[in-house]
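seq:
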Amino acid sequence: MEIKFGLGLWLLYILLGVLTAFFGIMDHHPILKFKMPFGFRGAVAGLSMHLLLVLLAYNQVAALMTDFFTAKYGLLSPWWILIDGMILGILMEWAETKFAGEGNIPLK
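struct:
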């Protein structure tokens, strides 16, 4: 794995934490008027960041998927990382909501 790709992954996860923290102040959608629980916000953030990762670095992610335990279970496609991103986003959003609480953006 290249050092630049590893640094990019490190920064991606830092930015995912920042994105989920900013999503934490939105407990409802201001235009469509529906409640957004932490699981929905985290899944959307994780999915979008990992979709960007796969689209920009498909070959590197494919190499990562063959290196780890996913190859043992036949999960060789780089698109499986989207589910990992959703789970990670939900866990990050849950931790941020638990320790910092949900905000209330005044856009009602």
